[in-house]
Amino acid sequence: LRLVAVLKAILEGExxxxxxxxxHLPLSFHRRQEELKFSLGxxxxxxxxxxxxxxxxxxxxSPQLNVRDPQxxxxxxxxxxxxxxxxxxxxxELEAAKQQxxxxxxxxxxxxxxxxxxxxxxxxxxxxxxxCESLVEVYFQLHQQVMAASAELGAELLPRLLERFNEVxxxxxxx
Length: 175
Fold this sequence. Notes:
Elements: H1 2-21, H2 27-61, H3 79-115, H4 126-148, H5 150-174
Helix pairs in contact: 2-3, 2-4, 3-4, 3-5, 4-5
């Protein structure tokens, strides 16, 4: 009985320490802030995919396309030469969004572990699943644009992009 009392006291101490550490701001505040950051990054990524598609469609229709986006207006550069740069930026944003999802998965796993010590734990996986699904949807849209623009990308850049795409998808699936 004494051993049980000691273990109970230790676990209650751990529970108090966990609750004390996370009390400075409500967990819902952090979760909402993280959700907004992810949503903004995903919207930016979707916008990049639409820019790539518009650039591809416009360059196929007329080589002298007047691009409205100030990021794409550069002196002496044609829309075809901007396509690889735009795709690389989109892939960087895809990888950043993937890191946010993986970080959230890691947090969820840690919270599940702490639940064994009595910490509060929300078992709802719907928000995490929604993040993964929306990221994979954008992933496939971007991958489709890259494959459609494979002729403009060249033999050197395309394999590197495909390798980065495979790494993004495999890390999401594995975790």
